[in-house]
Amino acid sequence: MVNASLIKELRDMSGAGLMDCKKALEATDGNIDKAIDYLREKGISKAAKKADRIAAEGLSTVLIEGNNACVVEVNCETDFVAKNEKFVNLVNTIAKLIVDNDVKTLQEANELKTAEGTLNDTLVNMTATIGEKISFRRFARLTKTDSQNFGSYIHMGGKISVLTLVEGANSDVAKDVSMHSAAMRPKYVRIEDVPSDEVEKETNILKEQAINEGKPADIAEKMVKGRINKFYKEICLEEQDFVKNPDETVKSYVANNNGSIVNMIRFEVGEGIEKKEENFVEEVMSQING
Fold first, then answer.
1. Cα–Cα distances in Å, from 179 out to 73, 152, 244?
2. 0.85 cut: is pTM over it?
């Protein structure tokens, strides 16, 4: 019988999943060195070596089930793998896990039970199977009341996923807001959501611009007020002109349909991740000249 501490030690050394470590130790009569060789032969321990790679491609998706919904983003290293059926199935499996379990953090999510042990074990095993670093980057989970409605939109097969929650109105209105958000990339739902330090920074920049334009103080102050409203219009969903009818804002569109926006989650795959820049020509030339 292989004890749990030995399994944990092998897992820490190899980066392989718990079940794979257990099998390896059982196959080698508890010899940890032979177990590592066993995992290497199976290609499983490769997962640990891939842990420091940059995974900036991948997929996002939305899953709505009854009064619960979630958005998830799972990353890989190449767009080729993002289209792999196993990877797509993994993303859908993770979304189902999240929508079914009231988890708040990635750590809690990674500890959810799967056929391989935990979700973290599943990710490690998938990394070994596919041959690229697989990373469950983020999720958002929303629960609605019976008077509220979800609406979602997935763009470019999962490169952008948006989930909108509205009070009143209907799911079609919520979907319209999601489609708008996919196109217009709002950072916040409403003006009150914008952090004060971000507003202060923008205000200072606008003041400097006005002063550099040689405007008197009182005129500069008015210019800043007008320009800060334009700033809100660019980054706040409610203030943006609705893509289907630019004569009204998104907020007024929803209000005209007897509703209000409660929340909007927008995931764009790879946003904020520093991607590795690869120059194919330089790479080939370096090999020729080398």
1. 18, 8, 10
2. no
